[in-house]
Write a structure and sequence with these properties.
The complex is a heterodimer of chains A (242) and B (913).
Chain A (H helix, E strand, L loop, with lengths): L1 E3 L14 E5 L2 E5 L5 E3 L4 E4 L6 H7 L8 H16 L3 E4 L9 H4 L2 H11 L3 E5 L14 E3 L1 E4 L2 E4 L10 E3 L4 E7 L2 E10 L3 E3 L10 E2 L15 E5 L4 E5 L7
Parallel strand pairs in A: 5-6, 6-7, 7-8, 10-11, 11-14, 12-15
Antiparallel strand pairs in A: 2-3, 3-4, 4-5, 9-10, 12-13, 13-14, 13-16, 16-17
Helix pairs in contact in A: 2-4
Chain B lengths: L21 E5 L13 H7 L6 H11 L4 E4 L6 H18 L52 H4 L7 E4 L3 H17 L6 E4 L5 H9 L4 E4 L1 H8 L4 H5 L4 E4 L2 H4 L3 H16 L4 E6 L5 H8 L11 E6 L5 E4 L17 H10 L3 E4 L3 H13 L7 E4 L5 H12 L5 E4 L14 E5 L5 H8 L11 E5 L3 H15 L13 H14 L4 H9 L9 H13 L13 E3 L5 E3 L2 H10 L8 E6 L14 E7 H5 L6 E4 L2 E9 L2 E6 L19 H12 L9 H13 L8 E8 L2 E6 L5 H17 L4 E6 L4 E5 L3 H6 L5 H4 L7 H7 L3 H14 L13 H4 L3 H11 L4 H12 L4 H10 L4 E5 L8 H5 L11 H17 L1
Parallel strand pairs in B: 1-8, 2-7, 2-8, 3-5, 3-6, 4-5, 6-7, 9-14, 10-12, 10-13, 11-12, 13-14, 17-21, 22-26
Antiparallel strand pairs in B: 15-16, 17-18, 19-20, 20-21, 22-23, 23-25, 24-25
Helix pairs in contact in B: 2-3, 7-10, 15-16, 16-22, 17-19, 17-20, 17-28, 24-32, 28-31
Classes of the chains: A alpha/beta (242), B alpha/beta (913).
Chain lengths: 242, 913
Amino acid sequence: MTVDLPPPGGGEDRARGGAEITIASVTLLADPDGTLYWPEQDLLAVADLHLEKGSSFARRGVLLPPYDTAATLTRLAQSIARFQPKTVVTLGDNFHDGEGAWRMADGDRAMLKSSQRGRDWIWITGNHDPEPADGIGGQFAASVAVGPLTFRHEPSRGAADGEIAGHLHPLARVAQRGRAVSRRCFAADGRRMVMPAFGSYTGGLNIRDRAFAGLFERSTFIAHMLGERRLYAIAAGRCLAD
Amino acid sequence: MLPFEEPTEGRRLEGWRFAARSVRVTLLERIDTHSLPEPFAGWFSARGWTPRVHQLELLAKARAGRSVLLIAPTGAGKTLAGFLPTLVELSEAYLSPLAPLSSPPPLRGRSTAVAEGEGGRVGGEPLPPVPVAYPPPPPSPARGEGAHRASRHKGGLHTLYISPLKALAVDIARNLERPVAEMRLPIRLETRTGDTPVSKRQRQRRDPPDILLTTPEQLALLLASADAPYLFGSLQRVILDELHSLVTSKRGDLLSLGLARLFRIAPQLTAVGLSATVAEPDDLCRFLVPQRPGLEARADLVITDGGAAPQLTMLDTAEHLPWSGHSARHALAEMYALIKRHKTVLVFVNTRSQAEFLFQEFWRINDDNLTIALHHGSLDVAQRRRVEEAMAAGRLRAVVCTSSLDLGVDWGDVDLVINVGAPKGASRILQRIGRANHRMDEPSRGVLVPANRFEVLECTAALDAVAENAQDTPPLRTGALDVLAQHVLGCAVGEPFFADALYDEVRAAAPYVELTRADFGAMVDFVATGGYALKAYERFAKIRQGQDGRWRISHPRIAQRYRMNVGTIVEADMLKVRLVRSRGTTGVVPRGGRLLGEVEEYFIEAMVPGDTFVFAGEILKYEALVEDEVYVSRSTATDPKVPAYEGGKFPLSTYLADRVRNLLAHPQEWRGLPAQVRQWLEIQHRRSLLPGRHDLLVETFPRAAKHYLVCYPFEGRLAHVTLGMLLTRRLERARMRPLGFVANEYALAVWGLGDMGVRIARGELSLAALFGEDMLGDDLEAWLAESAMMKRTFRTCAIIAGLIERRFPGEEKSRRQLTISTDLVYDVLRKHQPDHVLLRAARQDAATGLLDIRRLGEMLSRVKGRIVHKALDRVSPLAVPVMLEIGRETVYGEAADTLLAEAADELVKEAMG
C-alpha cells in the first residue's frame, strides 16, 4: 500500500488560498471554508447552514451529537472574524426545520448574537425554513439584490445573470491516478454561482446530477473544489458522475 | 455430515471417570456400542458403527449436568457428539417417564483422563444432575409411522444450537433428521434464520420445537421479546458450534451477552461448545459458563487427540520466485497439475481479488476442461449455494475460494487443500488444511504456495509451527462497548430492566467480566439519550427510567427499529452488481440485468465509467452507478484493472512473525529454503545486515534523487501503515521532507527529499527518538482526527451501537438525502466531546482493527534500544519486495488534496499549453 503525502512545505503559517471568481463582472473571493466574500460591498455570503440538523434527527430517534449548531456557528464566526464584513447574507435552509430556531441552545444563540453584533445580517428563507423565525436577530427576505448580483436560496431556472444561490449542496468528483476524490465545491460559469453547503452535517450532491442540468453554460462551467487550504478549479466537464 | 466410525471390534469401557474437569481422549480408541442406551445402541450396531470416545464423554458430562467444551478436529463427529446427549435425554423422557434423568448415569467407563484445573459450572461448584420432569407419554406409546408428532412430549424448547453460518444450521438440521427419523424419536427440530417465513417464526414462539437451530443474531432477536422467558424457560442445553471462530469477533460479544441472558432465564441450562484446536482452550471454557466477579468459572474440557497428522508441504516450484505481488501466477501450471492429480481440490486465497484472478487464469490454461469453480463472499448467494451443492455432489474438481469456505459443512471428497499466499497464522492454516479430511485415520493433505520470496519465509515458519502443532489463535476479546449498547436496547425491548441487575447479568459474560459500573452506566445513558455532555435530548429519549426504577422503551417504534438493526456484521456499504449490455454509442444504459453479486461502495467510488475489473469470474466494464446498483457489461479487455489488493483481513500472526524473524536471523536454518531464496538472503547478508530476531533493522539509501528509509518490523500491513503515517509526521518535523511511504506485511519504506542516512550517521536524527513509543501520543491523536481508517472504524461502531441506522433494501433511493455521513458526525463529536463513549469504543477497535495500534505499540516497546541502522549506497535485496510495491495501490481517502492539486495543475497545463 502506497501513501503519498500532501505537498511539502508550509505549516500553520501557510497562506490560505482563496480564489477569485468572477460572476457578472463582479470579482468575488471564494474561501476554502465555503464562504464567499464580496470586497467591494464588504459582504459575506454563506449557504445552507442547516442549524439544528442534529436535534432534528433526534426528534425521530436518531440521536446525533447535538454539537452541529455550535460547530457550524464556530466556523462561521471564524470566517466573520477574518473578513469583518459589514453585511452577512445566509442563503436559506439556515435551520434544518421550522422549529430549529426554537430548539437552539442558549450558548449557541449567544454565539450567533455575538457574530451579528455591529453588522447587517440577512436571513434568506429556504425550503427547510420558509417562515421567519423569532429570537435569532437579523432581517428576513426571500431574496436580496445588491448591484448586479441577486442572492437567493434556490437557483432559478433559465437565464439568471448574477445569481448567487445555495440549495443544491454542490459536490464535485474527480479522478487522478486511478483514484477518485469528492469535495464540496463552488459551482460557477461566470454568470451565476451555486455555493457549497456550510453546515457541519450537510452532505453534497454531485454537480453531474440532473438537478444541475441547464443551470450552467457547459463550456465555462467550473467546479472550485474545497481543499484543506485552497480551492482547486476543475472544469466541470472533467468531473465525474457518481 | 455426521461421520461415524467404520465397523471395528469395539471394547467396553469400564469406570468412566466423567467427573474429571479436563479430559484428553484419543480419537481412534474404539468403544463398545453397548455403552450407549437404547435405542441408540441398536441403531449404531444395526449400521455396524461404534460411538467415539468423545461422544460418550459428552454424554457423561450431560448426565453430570456440566457444561463442556469439546475440541476435536474436523470430521471427528463433533456435531453428533454435541447433539447426542439431547437426543438421548429427549428419547428417555419420552420412553421412560418414571425414570427421569436424575437416575444414576448408566455409563461406567475407564478413564483416559488427565485432570487439571479447578472451576466448575458456576462458581467452582459442580452441580448435581438436573432432574427433568417431562409429562408422561400418551396412553398408547405411539411408535408407528407418523405418530410421533402427535405424541411428542410437551416440555418446551430443550436445546438451542447456534452456528455462525445460516447454511450450516440448515445442513446440520437436515443431517440430524436422519437418526431422529430412523430411530423414530419423538423429537421435533427446526431451524430459524433470516429466511424463515414470518408465520413459522410466530408459530415457533407459540409452540417451540424440541431443538431449534439458529444464528447469534436470531438469538438476540428471540431474547428481545416479552415471551423470551416462556420460550427459553425450559431450555436444558445450548450448543455453540465453531466456537473458535465466533469468539474472535463482535458476534462473539453479542453471543456472550445472549448466553448470559439465557443462563438467567434458564438457570438449569448447560452449554456445549464445539471448537477446532485453539491456543487457549480455557478462554473458551470461560466463555461457556456464567462468570462471577473474582470467581473464574470454567466449563469442563474434552480434547480429542489423534487422527493422522496433517501432511503439509510447500510447493517446490521450478519457476522463478517473484520478488513481490500476490498473484502466484508463476505457479499456475504447477497448481493446475496438482488439481489434475487429485479428486477434488480447495484452492484457498486470502482476498476476493486473488480469487477472481486465479480463477481467470486457471480457465485460461484449462485444456482438460476440469470443472473449476469460484466461491467468495461477494458473489450472489444463489450462485454460492450452487457451487456448494455441486461440490457436495462431487461434480467439481476444484474450487478457488476465500475464507468464505473456512467454515461450513464438511465435504467428503476433498483430498487436497492448496493455500495460495501467506498462511498468516499457524492455527489458521491447520484449520484450512483440515477441510481436506474426511477420514480421521488418513492425513489431510495441504500444499502451501508462496506468491513471493517473503511468503516463502512465512510458509516455512508455518510448516515448522504445524509440525510442532503450535497454535496461535488470538486471546479472548474484551467485550466491545458498541455491542453492549445494542444489547442494552435489546434487553429493554424484551422487558423493563433494573440497571444494577442487568449490570450483574452482563458481567456474567466472559468478555464483559471486567466491565466497570461507570462504563455500563455510560452505555445505558448512551442508549437513552445519546450520552452527550450537553443534555439536549432528554425529551427524545429512546429508553426511560420509570417510577419503579426500571428502564423501558419510550415507544413501540423503538422496538421495531431495534429489530431492523440487530447484529454486529457491518460490511462496507455494498452495491449490487448487475450485468447489462454495454451502453455503446447510444449512451443509454439499459436497466435490469442479471445480479452478479455485491461490491464495496468505496471500491466503485474510486472507479471511472469505462474502467474494467474482474468480478464473478468475468472481466467487466463499469458502466454506471444508479442508486444502489452498479451496472456493468462484459468487456473484451484482456488486461483488466483488477480490484486493488485489499490485503487479507487477517494480519500475519505475532507468533508466526516471530518465527519468520528467527528464521531470517539464523542462516543455519536456511537449508530447507529454495535455492533462489537462500541466495537472496545470502546477498542481503553480504550487502547489508540480517536483522536479529528481536532487532529492528533500518536501512537508508539514495535512489533516483530521493532518499529512502526502509525498516522491517514484520507486524502486518495495517500496523505498518499506521507506523508510516506517524513516522512521516515526525520526519516532517525533523525537516526531512518526506514525500510518501509504502507498506506491506513485512516492511515499511519511507521516502523524502532529505538525506536521512547522513543525518542519522551524524547523530542529528535519532532513530530511538523517531521510533519512540511516544508517537502513540500526540502524533497518533493528530492523525486519528483525519484518518479515513479511523472514520471507517467509527462508522461501524455507530451502526452497531444504534446511533445511526443501517440501510435497508428499498430505502436506498432516498439515502443520499436522508442518511447522514458518519464522517461528519465523527468530526463534530471528536471536536466537541472527545471522551464520548462511542469514540472510546472506536478507539478500542482501532487498537486491534484497521489501525492495529496495539500491535504497533508492542513492536515499539520490543525494539527499544535494539534499532540497528545500516547506511547503504543502493537498495538492499531485502528492500526490493516492498520497493516494488510503490505506486501499485494507494490508500483510499488519504492525501486527497495531493490528487486535487495534480488534477488542477493538469488543467492549468492544458490551458497554458
